[in-house]
Every structure is written in structure tokens, then in C-alpha cells.
Amino acid sequence: xxxxxxxxxxxxxxxxxxxxxxxxxxxxxxQTPAQRHEPVGELLPELCTLDCGSLNFGDMVYVNPADWLxxxxxxxxxxxVKAELECFDLGHVWFARQLQKEGLIxxxxxxxxCLGIPWGAEADPETMLAMRNKLPExxxxxxxxxxxxxxxxxxQAVLLGGHARVGLEDNLYLKKGTLAxxxxxxxxxxxxxxxxxxxxxxxxxxxxxxxxRNPHTGGIExxxxxxxS
Length: 229
What we know:
The chain contains 7 helices and 12 strands. The strands form 3 sheets. Strands 1-4-7-8-9-10 form a 6-stranded parallel β-sheet, covered by helices on one side.
């Protein structure tokens, strides 16, 4: 019994062609909002990501114009899936709040603060705090850092009252020179969370806390008290 959260932000990679910068070169992969949403609409997970803007992503550009984002949000909303609002910079938090004002995000929003991607928001306590302070009062939120920042940012999120995310998508190593498995990263983060005085929620508690659709019953779970998801 696990809570499923599908990444739905693929197909946004733009790498200008070396000879003609008006065209995408090798490695460019652009999908429409409908194409990004297709696996979500077919599989209907409890959660899916909604990347909340464009940014310089390392040496490429991640393309996600405002109108594309609005269209994607409508598709997620119509499918009855809860959007995890992935924010790689302060402007993304601003636009996610705008989606909520426009009625495209229902209920208590769930934000994911994505830290350490060059050249988005830096993975440090000051940046996480600044982004957290811009969230709506009714927001649930989590944060992560990439690479060596993964565990420090997980701890920082707990200390600031948020949830934590870890996994191989963001970090390959358990420690310097030692490759990790997802299970090892989760176990390490769980110990860290508990040592900070919080605890990891069960899948049932997570569904209740975030008011997710229960795939076993089809109903929306209610609110509950809990620790860190």
C-alpha cells in the first residue's frame, strides 16, 4: 500500500541548435500539456507533479509557458488527481498562487520546493525559508535538495514544519562514493526525521492528511493529525 505520485513534467527540454538557435538541437524534447498529462489521465494516481514555470535548467531551458501550465492544471483537475506544485524558484510560487486564485487548484494546495537545480533556487536554509514564507496560509508543503544537499534539505524542511522528499531522481549516493538504492535513502531519511522529533506517516495517514482520493475505495480521505510524509 503506497501513495502514487507520477512525474508529469517531462517533454520540456529545449537545447538550442548550435547552427540555428531558433530551432531545437539534439536532446530537445517538447511535449504539449495533453501529452504530459496522458499517463496521469490513464492511470489516475493519487498525485501528479505540476511544474510551475520555465527556468534555466543546467545547460538547457525547461519550457513551460503560463498558458501551457493553465491547460495542464485544468487537465489534472478534471481527472480528480491532486497536483503537487513543483516550484524551482520564487516566481514559480507566485504563479502557483495565481493558479489557486483562478480556481485551477482546489482545496489545500500541496507545494514541493525544488532546491539546488542550476540555475533555479539554491539549496540553502535562507532560500527554503523565503519560498516557504510566500506560500498560502492553507498550503501543505515539502522540499528537497539534489545531490549532497538531499539529506540536509530534508532535515531543514522538517525543522521548518514541512514534509520531506528523497529518492534516486534527486541523488544517487548514500554517502560520498557509495551508490544508494531508493530503499536506503528512504530508511536514512526516516531515521533523520525521527531523530528530529517527527515521524513518517503511513500511506493511509498521508491520504487523510493531504485529502487524497483513496484508490482502494474511490473516496476522498479526511483530515488527520500526522508527522512527516
